[in-house]
Amino acid sequence: MRLPIIAGNWKMNTTVEQAIELVQEMRGRLDKIEGVEKVLCPPFISLTAVDELIVDSSIKLGAQNLYFADKGAYTGEVAPLMLAGLCQYVILGHSERRQYFEETDEIVNRKVKAALKVGLKPILCVGERLEENEAGKTEEVVTRQVKGALAGIDSPPGLVVAYEPVWAIGTGKAATGEQANTTIGLIRHIVSQLYGEQFAQAIRIQYGGSVTSTNIAEFISRPEIDGALVGGASLIATEFLSIVEQTAATKK
């Protein structure tokens, strides 16, 4: 059985004070939920504050990005070693990074390698745009992104993959459970080609894209889907708690 994982991507939201309030609102109840790995991914400025609040709890911490260089004259960037020991996970290859910051599969690959080098667990995001989906290119795009991101990497420990169709992110238009399950099954097949069936069956693959407390059951009840990367709903304590609780109940 794969342990389901629910990660909250807060994106560019919350001040440090707001992050503290949000965690305080969720911590007690979230910590008690068993059978689900829970990850909070606040902005860089709040990582230390959130880490202090969740110490000695079952809640894990994730960053939203990193740069692939160890150090150097890269104003505004955050190096892998700056995150190592502070958080356990890091989101890489998110469609917003690809779209707004022109991250290519090669850049994502370098970031995945950099994260693994310092012991961080990547949450690797892949997904097709609306026009690619409508043109029947979902398999082509997702295959390219997975293989590109993992090129030259041997059996990455702790890797999580998140399938996030770009047309469903922040739009309120989620994929159906059947659509997500089919594509995540494809991703698992691609991973089996790279690392073997045993590794593919052990890796956790999430769905992301307009996930809410009202539709999480549709996704988490599917056999290939091992959790969710939650955006806007992770900024509302009651929503995120409900998503985690429903996941725990469904995946018992």
Question: Would you write up a description of this structure?
Answer:
The structure is a single chain. The protein is α/β, with parallel strands linked by helices and 252 residues long. The chain has one domain: Alpha-Beta Barrel (TIM Barrel). Helix content is 43%, strand content 15%. The protein is built from 11 helices and 8 strands. The chain has helices at residues 16-32, 47-54, 80-83, 95-100, 105-117, 130-134, 138-149, 177-195, 197-202, 216-220, 237-250, and strands at 5-9, 37-41, 59-63, 89-92, 121-126, 160-163, 204-208, 227-230. It has an 8-stranded parallel beta barrel with strand order 1-2-3-4-5-6-7-8, surrounded by 6 helices. Helix 1 (16-32) packs parallel to helix 2 and helix 7 (138-149) crosses helix 8. The longest helix is centred in the C-terminal third of the chain and has 19 residues, at 177-195.
